Amino acid sequence: MVHLEVDKDDPVDLHEQVAGEIRRAIADGEANPGDRLPPAKDLAAVLGVNANTVLRALRTLRDEGLLEFRRGRGISVAASPERGEVVRRSRELVDYARRHGYRLDELIDIIRSVG
């Protein structure tokens, strides 16, 4: 199990601290792609926080592309922090393009033309 800690006196929200600790564990090689994480309730018990706090952090990391949720298999590390950063920036690009009236297929064409 990866080593995680939160500081309840820190002004940073607990779910952000949990997400940051898991990101750090992935970056440091404590959790590698394919590794399964303990259930959220177990992580919450170890950290001394509510399970919903952990679930919120896990969903954030899933949305960043770092974690994968699989029914019946739990939560596993999906990618390296670098891939997670590419996913995050891709989401920003998609949001930016949509705000400026571009459809996803148009954005894909633009990316292909510059790639």
TrEMBL record:
GO MF term set: DNA binding; DNA-binding transcription factor activity
CDD domains: WHTH_GntR
Keyword RNA-binding tagged: no
PROSITE patterns documented for this protein: HTH_GNTR
Pfam families in alphabetical order: GntR
Classification via InterPro entries: Tscrpt_reg_HTH_GntR (IPR000524), WH-like_DNA-bd_sf (IPR036388), WH_DNA-bd_sf (IPR036390)
SMART domains, sorted: HTH_GNTR
Taxonomic superkingdom: Bacteria
Alphabetized Gene3D superfamilies for the sequence: Winged helix-like DNA-binding domain superfamily/Winged helix DNA-binding domain (1.10.10.10)
Keywords: DNA-binding, Transcription, Transcription regulation
Domain HTH gntR-type: 12-80
Protein name, per record: GntR family transcriptional regulator
Taxonomic classification: Bacteria, Bacillati, Actinomycetota, Actinomycetes, Micrococcales
